Hints:
Number of strands: 0
CATH architecture: Up-down Bundle
Mean pLDDT: 82
Distance between the termini: 27 Å
Number of helices: 12
CATH topology: A middle domain of Talin 1
Largest sheet: none
Low-confidence stretches: none
Order of helices and strands: HHHHHHHHHHHH
Oligomer: single chain
Amino acid sequence: MNAVWGLPVAIPVFVVSATVIGFAGVRLARVVDRLADRTGLGEAIAGMVLLAGATSLAGLVVSIVAALSGEPSLAVSNSAGGIAAQTAFIVVADLAYRRINLEHAAASLTNIFSSLLMVVMLSLVLLGATSPPVTVAGVHPATALLLLSYGYGLVLSRKVGQEPMWKPTRTTATRTDVPGSDDGTEPTRRLWGGFVVLTAAVLLAGFGIGRAGVSIAEQSALTGTTVGTFLTSVATSLPELVTTVAAVRAGALTLAVAGIVGGNTFDLLFIAGADVAYRQGSIYHAITSTDLFVLAWTMLLIGVIAAGLVRRQREGIGFEGFAVLGIYLGGLVIVSTG
């Protein structure tokens, strides 16, 4: 699949698609919040599965389109760059909440576990990239391990939420996941219908960003890593930004954080999908040293935010919040000059 769009077409398509993704993301946060209460899933699981899965579809399409077009760096950096951007969005949401540190108020063992799962999955990607280039039907074994770890991680996340072996200390600022008031006037079937329609809009917009991103990478002076880290990953992460801020303003704090950390684990599966789509061998061994830096940079960001979830500083955005912003901006500078 080769890009056929010129820059005069690719750039407007990119902008319009990003706008569609942002608009659909706001609506998705409201719908998933109501479904979390109506179905009994709870905000943490609904955020990790429904919200994260729906808002991440655009990024998945981008990575697959990039892999099919022979742009492995764009495919991988779109995944890792999106995770990095979304982690920084937690700090943005923290600023929007203002009352108290978001990691303190949204205490959730499920969110902490999801962060640890993210570190494990990133380790698998780095191991795949530095291991021998062995493939089965053109797919590296690390891809299967990614899928298995994600599936098993979902099972464990639900178990951790239902049968926690320890619980965070409750304070006056802690916001627990309590089902909100629902008058029940809107049928559950209609809520699911709205969820499907909005998810389809995100999916189609993701295809537009994917083709536009490949076109920009091939017809400009920008590398695939730069396009993936700065453009496509941020554009496809817009739902996470708007849904997180919207959830925080609605008081659904656990959903806000779960949408990010759950979305991060799902976003790493983009690399698995890209490896299957990339027909020139293992995508792990087609990426550059700059891509490896992006993966390690992302792992560092996840580790810092996980520490913030455990430490639960009360006031402001906390040390971890400032650290995440500093690491994120510093990483962008290094990628742009690499």
